[in-house]
Input
Amino acid sequence: MARAEYRPRYGSENYSYVLPMEEGFSSAWSTQWMQDYWQHSVTISIAYVVLIYAGQKYMESKKPFALDSALFWWNMLLAVFSLSGMVRMAPEMFWSVNSNSLVYSICTASFAQGVSGYWTEKFAFSKVFELIDTAFIVARKRPLIFLHWYHHVTVLVYTWHAYKDHTASGRWFVFMNYTVHAFMYTYYALRAMRLRIPKQVAMFITVLQILQMIIGVSIGVTIYRIKSSGGECQQTWSNLYFSFAIYFSYFLLFCNFFYHAYLKRNNRYVAASKAIANEILPSADETHVKSNGTVPTVTNGTSNGTLNVSGEQDNLTNGYANHEMMANGHLDYNGNCGGRRSKGNSTTSSKQSTDRSDDSEMESNSSAPHSADEAQASPTKTRRQSALVAETLIANHHRRSVKAQKQ
Output
């Protein structure tokens, strides 16, 4: 279904400058390669899921890797890449709508050539590299949930399936995804630096993601009507049904996430946290209470969030131990954290774990302050004292869990 030439189109000559790599892009070669090998996206996805399981199994007996610096640079790389793609795709995107029509923008794949074609190809291949996001989560023993890996797998397969036929609506899909990811990965990079970002920022990015799904479903409905009435639109029926399935499922999952993360009170996060805290920390005495009124909770042998005296827990984001929850599929709105239920005490299994603690609350070990004044004057020492308490609890709880499993 892909074509060798599209007219009219926003060619390289319309750009004020063209990079050498963009100038040398061959749409014909790229399209032929994808037509021959797009099925490998399924193979890669299967291997990805297997490696997730193997990685989590391996990390069960290991300490989390300290990858803050690597995580920052990885997210910055993806943020810059996404921003570059958005900027380079924008002229062609706006031209397709303003100088032509909305129908042209979703039914004619002229974006597959020239500068926009180069960044479309790179977008398709970037979905493989974005799987590395999950490696950071597994290596750092952060919560990994269905929405995260489902999103990665389905986007990869759909993108390759759409690219091989120059699916015209891909123009919108690519541009919107570049835009959302530019914000999202910038946010992740800042959080990797342990900066506290207002909750509203995470909510804004989640809203952008939901809006992307609404637009995707709306475009699909429009294309369906055009094709059903006998009109021409460059998208196969199989790809159209595929897009309906994933966009609608994303919409439901992200909306559900948004509700449980930002709107619902007394949700399962708090309930699970209380259950864990009551078993592992039956009394929050002064030795265990931090100066800000929170105590560390522990699950499955790892530090797992901060619970204040009233039983309220901070909502975290994206499995990278951030303060806000965000709908990128990195934290389970059902209170699940992607781990496997232990054979011993199910209350302390990772299936009942909720949020991970903010990295800024867990510094290296040090001596603790002995008064409120000293704690206020030395917040760093207070955090270190909390980390020491948490590590002691972790060690004791891990020994009890191992002993219970042996029995």
Notes: The mean pLDDT is 76. The beta strands are 294-299, 302-308. The chain has 14 helices and two strands.
